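Entry:
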Amino acid sequence: MVYEYWVVPAPRKGEKARGLKSSEERFAFALTTLLTAMGAQGWEYQRADALPCDERRGLTGTKTTVHNVLVFRRALELGEDQFEGKRAAGQTMAFAPSAPAVPSLGAAVQPLGAAPALGPATSDD
């Protein structure tokens, strides 16, 4: 069986819903929503990983941070005999999976509307 993999960032905050009072319940709900949405698109949950990532800090420095990700997989339509044939021919397999729609947790701040129009600057002389 040949699989394709998709890695998404793990939720960092809980999602509000009626009846959920504690942060643990809200976080579990956010995780459940994400896993359900991915499963509906045919992605099977595999594991959660915490992976280091070197990021730029300042002009010359780097900083290592840890990112929590969720790994999913699904079977490819490509048959195993086709895969083995390409491997025997020395061809590389490059797949560009269609990006699944990852549910958003919503905006942190609701926009207040359009900014007021400003006129030209005047002097108070």
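The first strand starts at residue 3 and ends at 9.
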